[in-house]
Amino acid sequence: RGRGGGGGKRGKGEYRSDGTSRVHGAGDGHCVATLERHSDYVMALAAPTEPGATRFASAGLGTDQIFLWDINAVTAPVAAAPGGCGGGGGSGGRRRGKGGGPAGTAEDGSNIGKSTAAMSSVVTDLEGQKESVYALAMDPAGTLLVSGCSQNLVRLWDTRSGERQVKLHGHTGNVRCATIDPTGRLCLTGSSDHTLKLWDLGQQRCVQTLAGIHACSVWSAVPDASWHYVYSGGSDGRVYATDLAHRRSTLLFQESHGVLGLCRDDTRTVGEGVWAATMGSDVRRWLTDIDDDHYLHHHHAGSHRKSVGDNAGGSAGAGAGRFGLRGRLEAELAASQGGGGRGDEGESGGMAGSPLHADRNHHPRTSGTWFAAAGSSAPRYGSASGAGAGAGHHRDAPALPAPVHAAAAVTIPGAAPITEHAQLNDRRRVLAKDAAGVITVWDVTTCTVVKTLPPGPPGADGKEASFAETLQAENTPVSIPSWFQLDARSGSLAVTLTPASAFSAEAYAIDMSVEGANDETKLNLGVQTVHALLRDWAAARADTVRGGEGDARGGGGGGPVDVNALGPCDDAGVFRAPTRRPLLMCEAPAGAATVLMRSAGLEGTDAEEAALPEWVVDVAAGTYAVPDSPKTSFYLTPSEGMPSLSQGKVTAPRVLGVRKVCSYVINKLNLEQRPGMKPEDLVEILCNGTALDPGMSLATVSTFVWKKGDDVQLHYRLKKGAAVKADTGISSA
Q1: What is the DSSP letter of 61?
Q2: What pTM value is reported for the model?
């Protein structure tokens, strides 16, 4: 997941790994549209900055996966839940693109097809992009689009006609980032070939290659407002500041993870800076002020940063720093005869003498930074990693200098992402380990952390216990069907409920410590979890629809309830509502847009009911026809010398406990059970020669004791002192 660039004051974009883009309001940050068109991950967004521009672009993995969207159409009012995000006519993308799902419906309920006027007013396909796109940039007016792809190409598109204009060659690796200057003439790209390239879009060629700055793939780059400096970050976490006009660079700061994105922040009151988003969970703001002493440069040590910005009224004799980058480029292009083919680098097109270009005879290329020329008084520094390509050329080179800024000015901390997770056997708890190594136990029925585990004791090899070892230690021998799916692709735990599996697990109310429950009452875990999440919404919905005279069945209304008299779908109040309410993501069938809702503050409106899946609404209302619990068969035979039962094979729910089997034997043999005696005081149940714990269920016995695929074979025997009623003709044990 990431954020798209641009967007002006109208809103901001979000690109995601689920193949959707989302539009958020700039004021309150609420999602106002979910756009589904991509067939794979969305990797980049681009938006114009000029007022009145109405279209933005999204791009992702796969063939022909660049789309232009009309911001007015996608943000048109639709029936969506408050605080939520949904499709409708505004989403426009309730139809997937090539290889995606079928068409969805417009706001008026009509189908949307690719060739219809409705669809063409919302989204335009830019065809001709055969490779996956990782970089996208748009000029301020929104008429020119630049894309960078996995085949090392930079493509230019005319957004008005939707046609591809030209392919620019030069990079030898995946193009990972791109940005266009405010005039729409210059474009800066970064690549996994470790270089940055500056392109003149009018001349359609590369005019400057910044090589030797990064020792790794360049993932992000953002120029300052004047385009005199560029800040670039790579997969190694290092962010460099480069003076484009003077060809000099310095290490600005060091992140602990690869830098995915940089965003310029020109807030004067706190100093100019950049925000950095990385593979880690924190977002940081770093200052960008640099003293000249920090720069490693080629020409002279006396140039000042201020002079670079004074490009108005400067003379050619005032020094190289007196012209801005654009002015110097204009002068060069005017003097150039236009040699070199489109997309070729400047050296082959009469640009070899350009002050914008690194003279490779005087700039030894290394993997860490730019160096002073041979004989210069400026020091040379080695590879950023100490083992890069440049290290082989300068074996005696010292390590890189310390970055200009050792600490960020502002840090927005984020939670460490979940990296490993597993359901525990009780199907209520989940074990999760985050990137910081902390292991927690979550209760999915209440959405809370119930335990934080300290680091495990070291093993014989001195290493900390692994996640698998912790899982084994925390698990208990119990077998309950899985009634939810779990994933952590977003870095947080996500629990998925579907009607096919949500009702698979149940438990006896007495085992869940429900007050007043008898030993026959069973509760469905999925039903009770939905009630806990939507109990308040169901009450509000009843007030809205039925004027507060709705059916208040269950334990969610606050009054006393007889749990033994409840139906299978009623609320027993066994799970409390989560203290921190989770987000609800409601996926509609047939490729329709996903709706994102906050479960806190729902008002019981028609729009909310329409956004929720129908089966969830029915469960919350207590009207869903919950399927019967799964059953299993087992054989119950006497041990040697014990009386036989009239029925040897028995069918019962899988959740049936061994204690209930003991009671069954007592009833069938008409044994006398005195007050205060438990069933297990009279009868013992065995499987594979092992006496069973009375608290075990048949499913647990089958999984952990019987361990075979056929029907479980159980044996019973009477315990010593068991009293037998006189009319049975059975002797006492």
Answers
A1: S
A2: 0.64
